[in-house]
Please model this.
Amino acid sequence: MALLEGIPAPLTPAAATRVLVLRNYVVYKGAWKLFITGFLEPVFYLFSIGIGVGQLIDTFEFHGEAIPYAEFVAPAMLATSAFNGALLDSTYNVFFKMKYEKLYDQMLATPLSTGDIARGEITWGLMRGSVYSAAFLVVMALMGLTQSWWAVLALPAAILIAFAFSAVCMAVTTWMTSWQDFDKITLAQMPLFLFSATFFPVEAFGDGVLRWVVEATPLYRGVVLCRELTTGVITWESAVSVVYLVVMGVVGLLVVRRRLDKLLLT
Amino acid sequence: MGSDVASDTTPATTTSRPARPTGSLSAWEGMARQYDYWLTVLKRTWRGGVVSSFLTPLLYVVAMGVLLGGFIEADPDKLEGATSYLAFVVPGLVASHAMTLAVSESTYPVMGSIKWHKTFFAQLATPLAVRDLVNAYVAFVMFRVASACAVFMLVIAPFGVFATWWGPILAWLSQVLVGFAFTTLVFAYSAWLKSEEGFGLLFRLVVIPLTLFSGAFFPISNLGPVLEWIARLTPLWHGVSLSRMFCVDHIDWALVVVHVVVLVTLTVVGWFLAVRNLDRRLEV
Model:
């Protein structure tokens, strides 16, 4: 009986998430240079494409309003950097931890469950991503690229984008078998990054099927949501985007949990 | 390799510097002997590079050149002589792609050959010298860079962005030169670096800014006078400018000489540093 008393009680989901986040924080402290420079990439893109190329472009129409090119590109950079960060974190890092480090196997030998692992990893990714998104929003505001107080809500919007993609990408990663599979990730990542109305308006695709396809992709919803918030042109489309991304994230999370159960508990 | 056993058994334990059997082969033979090894590597890994080598740059051309370019007024005065934004951006994209490929092929794989799978140590246990390892490695990377750029240029040709038939050939040679400069310099860095954390910093603080601000996407005169001069000092700008001058047939021959001298100098300096750093690193 004395032995049984020594076994700690199972953790609540919140406590388990906290432990996992703490673990990642401790590991990451060693790589602080990588952490700091992580937020530079969208800023570089903003200065290069938004301002450098922007000098060759007059203005773009967005929901009937003419906006300067830098104001058009900046919210897209906010959305795509949340997307890129979530994608890299929940594919490469999760794959490495699962296949090579056997980290999750070790964690399951403790009172943690597969649901805890999914929640903990995604929470950590979101915390890291939201620091970057907040920093980028500050840069945007300082450069005068935000047009209304709605822009404050662009931060939760960016976190929502990161949540939706983290969950889905982590689910996809559970089906991967080798590093060669990551070419397929790039195959999905690059078109999404370049064609989600990031650098040019969706009107460039014409009025046909192609435009409808683009409008139905998740990153496009995220980009448009951020753009609506920072320019202050809110429409019913914003609500559609929010519901779309929430559903996507929840479905992803459920799949991750089932897949981890199957991979790690059998 | 049987005839070289004598030079192979030179005691490596002595403390005097030329302990390794260096220079027992000619530079050419040292490279040629590794031909089958690198061919095998290529056969086993080329599939993993198809998307990053060919598809990614092509997507950039469509997104930036065709779609974004549709919104940009085609004014040769503002676009360094190009008659459309597509014609402007393509030569720059290929040059910066040459850099990206060269850098990614000479970072993790070089560190791996030293630290993880230790191929370099195995190769040095043969009559090969450090110089031969560097030469064959650079040749392998350059084969990939040169072929990727050639394919890219051929695919782009039907879009009608090239002003002459011979310009793209010279432009391709300048892209190859960019590849050489970055392969040798980054090889030197990788051979010196102890932890792979440095690669993340290299990509974020060097490769991405160079790609974005070296005149590939927009004329560097848009940067303002101070930043423009900084951009002129970067190696990639010399390659981008060279590649673009030939593609749009807007050539300033004096500038061509400057660009070529800079890139060749960087390659030579990079090569010497690469051999020196690898030699120090492989000392046992």
